[in-house]
Amino acid sequence: MKARSGTQLPATVSPASVNAGTGTKKFSLLPKIVNGGIAGIVGLDLVKTRLQNQQDGPDGRRMYKNMFDCFKKTLRAEGLRGMYRGSAVNIVLVTPEKAIKLAGNDYFRQHLSVGGKLPLHREMLAGAGAGLCQIIITTPMELLKIQLQDAGRVAQKQTHGNATVAAPKASKIAMDLIRTKGILGLYKGTAATMLRDVGFSVIYFPLFARLNDLGPKAPGADVVPFWYSFLCGMGAGAFAAAAVTPADVVKTRLQLLHRAPGERAYSGVIDAFVNVVKYEGVVALFKGAAARAMVIAPLFGIAQTVYFLGIAERLMGIQKAPAALPPVQHTLLLKEDQGNSSDQRI
Question: How many CB atoms are located within 10 Å of the residue 20 CB?
């Protein structure tokens, strides 16, 4: 389908919006934040955290053999409630994380597009900007979540499996850190968090855009069905999550405050990378990759579907523009249209 000559096309992932009754297009940041927040209310990665934090013992043995073994042993030692440790913090974490990530990406795409066109390097830059913004909230939330999720593993290892695990409280951990190290104590592991989140967004958003553009479109329609956006969100999310697992492993280990006897501590990102590979091999950098992909895939599938449907726009009475186009499609249409319009510029 051809774009009309001289038409400026939107450069955002989600449909553009217009003021109800006026038809005036504008970038509405608030509904984008709400869309991301609605999408990000689920997620549990306790198993991933424990797999990433466990280190090989002197005899080469590990506490957990794999993801399923970790599930089984955690359930047996701590019960069903133990499986949900850190879930409250995780819900608080995921909601602003997805809100900032999705709204931030749209914001940067809007401002980085030139003449309605957004080449790949600018798409990646927009994703990087979104990932950079989110670490303000995700770093302290991840720090608290990891302490809650890994407390059982550390206690079991300290007492050789005979411990009655007392659940720590996030509020106490936060207050202790602020009292002893100030507010910056909550930002331990910021560099590794930035490496993970920026890397994820640089991969995820351009990949999602291109997968989404390949989808089926009804005659006369410019957007793919919502179910296809869901599948694209899952696929792009799983791939990006697996790709940045090494950064996630390093971040998780750097943010752990209390270790079991004999476990190595790290002085920074480079030291963690070097020593993990030295003592555990390159494969250790991908610990928890399957569990992480299984958590991230449906989460981003839901996120993109909610974003696609524009639930917040509906709730706020802001109508979606009828001719909104996916990010890659509008770029292709502009290329096709350049020969027909002398006022299009790159």
Answer: 12
* Residue 49 burial by Cβ neighbours in a 10 Å radius (0-12, 13-18, 19+): buried
Question: How far is 37 from 40, CA to CA, in rounded Å?
Answer: 5
DSSP-derived pairing of the beta strands 25-26 and 319-320 = unpaired
Q: Where are the beta strands (DSSP E) in the chain?
A: 17-18, 25-26, 319-320
- Alpha-carbon distance of 275 to 61, in angstroms, equals 18
**What tokens appear for 104 in the block?**
């931030």
Indicate the Cα dihedral angle 289, 291, 292, 295, nearest 10°.
Answer: 160
Is the full-model pTM beyond 0.85?
Answer: no
E strand or H helix that includes residue 319 = strand 319-320
Q: Is 329 helix (H, G, I), strand (E, B) or coil?
A: helix
- Give the contacts of 11 (CB within 8 A, at least 6 positions apart): 109, 110, 112, 113, 116, 117, 118, 327, 330
124-138, 153-167, 290-304: segment of lowest average pLDDT: 153-167
**pLDDT single digits (tens) 177-204:** 899 999 999 999 999 999 999 999 999 9
pLDDT tens digits for range 198-221: 999 999 999 998 998 898 887 877
